[in-house]
Amino acid sequence: MAGLTRFITIQVFFCVLATALTGYMLNSALHQYANSQQLKVQRAIDLELTQLTPDQDIEAFAKNIKLQYSLDKLIIKDKENQSIFSHQGNQDYLPILAKKLQEFQPFIRSQHGAGSDLGLKIEFTLRLEQAAEIMQNAFLILFLVILVMALVPFITLKLTLLQASNKVGDAISNMVDKYIEADNKDGKLDSSLADGTVSNIFPSIVRLNTFLKRKQKDIEASALDIKREAYKDTVTGLGNRNLFIEHYEHQVENAEKPCFGTLAVVRCTELSLINQTRGYQQGDEYIIDVSELIAQAIGTYSGSACYRLNSSDFAILLMNVPLKEAEKLGEVLQSKFTEFQQHVELTSVANTGIVSFETGKPLSPLLAQVDTALSMAQSKTTNGYHIQKESDLLDNVSASFGNQNWRQVIDDVLNNSRIQLMIQTIMPTSRSAKAYSEIFARFKTSEDHILPTASFLAMSEKLNQHTHVDRLVIEEAINAIKTRNLNDQFFGLNVSAKSAHDEQFSIWLERRLLKDNAIAAKLIFEVSEFGLQQNVKASKRFIDMVHRVGARITVERFGVGLTSFKFFRDLKPDFIKMDATYTRGLEEDKNNQYFMRLMVDLAHRIGVTVLAEGIESQEEKHIIEQLCLDGAQGYYIEKPKEI
């Protein structure tokens, strides 16, 4: 090992020394060439100056010698040291190695000359682009040659040692296999390993065997505990996605015996809305309630299993249950979700997509199929379900039918203005603080069922209908303010980042607000921090337009991306709304309180009003007031209600 280390050290030293000598020689050659060229050009220009007559155009003379001698910088001054012609070079044409060399040991230097008759003074630098590129290419080629020369012996030595190591390993392995094979006949491996031959030649084998015997049970027990924890969802106690994948691959995809069954995925449509408006604790309770309803629904199916795939999705695996019988499960789940909805203030609870499977069916296409079923279910009715059959997907003719169905639903909402406006007050924490009421939109089907808001907005963006949806909400909000004579109040309206970055939408919004400039002065448009970051230039253009018509801007969900305050100083928003994650458990988290206070101080320094959302308790409200935030929003302050 010491010899190998010494060999590597010599090779590295050789590589470094050779590279340094190569760089030194090329550097010297470049400097010599640059000096000779500069001296040559200086003499030629001095000769040109002596031949210059008073009636000649100095500027034309300067441009001529600049092109003739390939000058990067050229400055000509008269007797009074006044500049007659000036062209400043920047040396950006130099390749990177030459540029670094120029910074530390300049080879291009300013040269000076003087006209003997006219009293002209000239300063110039040459443009040595070709020489610099030749030097750099030569250095890179020589460096690669040196590197190869250094690595080839090392690689050869490594292969030789590897072959020797393999031979030694094979010899030891053959010896161990010999004793194991001989001992397997009577099951006395320990005594075989402990005989004189093995213990004398390879005592480490005996020690290793003893250690493994002592630790084997502990390792197996620890591995089992780790696997249980790794495969367990902390909120519901159900198996997580990893356990679901392992179970499916073992029981279905790689099953030795033929099998069939049904996969159902339940999607909690209101989770993101609850997390944002009520807080993450309420979101966890919502997930737990849904998991309990699922457990009740599948309790009668033998061998059924439920897993939590991600934050909002549950997977139900029903072995040996045909698709026709699984329809009853969809009806039971819809009934339970609807009954649960009557006891909570939600527009929906969950939707279900159902598909069938059989032995050898890969999981990826099955999940894609069930995702299509979910899209169909979400666009049908509240808490609905949809069964996606294999016959519906033949030749992939209707693989995107879920998207098509969503397009029809979105078009129906837009064409018939099927929306319901809700409002939630943001309470100011002091008399001098500025606050407003936020307007939410709920979207309905033709049967007057409320669609899942998050799914509707996500699909509208996916199908490029987001600008039309935002237009509809803004129109309805303005009309509601006018008809209900609410001109003395301030209202917030959500705008998707994609709409804010859409130039045509900005033009439409500016014209619409100018029609009702009195109402425009009462509107605050909310755009997410993450969305604004995606296109800063377009975000600034949108915010400038909003300010130009008298409205204002709120950056919502602030703090998720930890954007610098320089970003907000440049965009100049009027409000920032701290994300609900910062208010959750705020009364117990001193670090979070310190961070929030720091944000408030910095925001106030640049004239930005700070609001908090997700306030769920008196303690959180009290802490918000102590930290000098300007306003608070949440279920403790006021629940959303119809406008």
Automatic annotation (TrEMBL):
The chain crosses the membrane at residues 6-26, 137-157. The keyword Transmembrane applies. Residues 403-643 form the EAL domain. InterPro entries: Cyclic-di-GMP_PDE-like, EAL_dom, EAL_sf, GGDEF_dom, Nucleotide_cyclase, Rev_trsase/Diguanyl_cyclase. Pfam families: EAL, GGDEF. Residues 259-390 form the GGDEF domain. It comes from the Bacteria. Keywords: Membrane, Transmembrane, Transmembrane helix. One of its GO terms (molecular function) is cyclic-guanylate-specific phosphodiesterase activity. This is Diguanylate phosphodiesterase. It comes from Pseudoalteromonas piratica.
